[in-house]
Specification:
Length: about 220
């Protein structure tokens, strides 16, 4: 049986006593390090998905999804995603390609492309293209050689800023430039989003948890 969750209330700010309903404590950097991935991916949700296309050494296209991802700034456009190593000291194919080519494309994922995105998460030998599994087609980028996914609702051309290696995590920092957006998603004059035309999905808990992002609400910016 689930207990009722508490919520913040402005009146508590007047109290001098700390208020806490935390009932579990985990030490992810030490005692519970072995379950850190499980706990983090279950609690930090929903997460946007970076569907990253890169060039293999032979010019074929690698395509893989990453949900340790977000935008971290706009001046300049800074996009960051994280990729664990394939094996100790060995980067995943996506990072291997980015380190060599210094460029990549972050394609965003909507409901129409959910299955194709999931198929591209399959572990394939280096050089085998995920596009042969999921049937996606390619479209030329403008500022870089790496192509984007034609079916993606939006795609961002990125140039590598740096890759930070923190133990087994490789954090990829990219500077975005050209952004491709399907017609109808952004107003051509105001550039405001049309939510009905942009049905993105996000990652949730476990190896197979996803969420639709079409149940939205608005709150006015606070005035104090």
């Amino acid at each position: 049986m689930l207990t009722e969750r508490k919520k913040c209330a402005p009146d508590f700010a007047k109290s001098s006593l700390p208020v806490s309903w935390v009932t579990m404590k985990l030490s992810l950097a030490s005692e519970h390090r072995a379950i850190s991935y499980k706990v983090l991916t279950e609690l930090v949700t929903p997460r946007p998905i970076a569907w990253v296309s890169t060039l293999n050494e032979d010019g074929s296209v690698n395509l893989a999804p990453y949900s340790f991802f977000n935008v971290f700034g706009s001046k300049p456009p800074l996009l960051i995603f994280g990729a664990g190593d394939k094996s100790p000291g060995v980067p995943k194919d996506t990072v291997r390609n980015i380190l060599r080519e210094k460029e990549y494309v972050i394609n965003l994922v909507d409901e129409a492309n959910a299955e194709a995105m999931n198929l591209s998460a399959a572990s394939l030998p280096y050089g085998d293209s995920e596009l042969e599994l999921n049937g996606c087609s390619l479209a030329e980028s403008e500022g870089i050689r790496t192509p984007r996914i034609a079916e993606a609702p939006a795609a961002l051309e990125c140039r590598l800023h740096s890759v930070q290696l923190i133990e087994e995590n490789r954090i990829v920092l990219g500077l975005g430039d050209k952004v491709w957006v399907q017609d109808g998603i952004l107003d051509p004059e105001t550039h405001y989003l049309n939510p009905e035309a942009y049905q993105v999905i996000g990652r949730m808990q476990g190896p197979d948890g996803y969420i639709h992002c079409n149940d939205r609400f608005q709150m006015a910016w606070p005035k104090v």
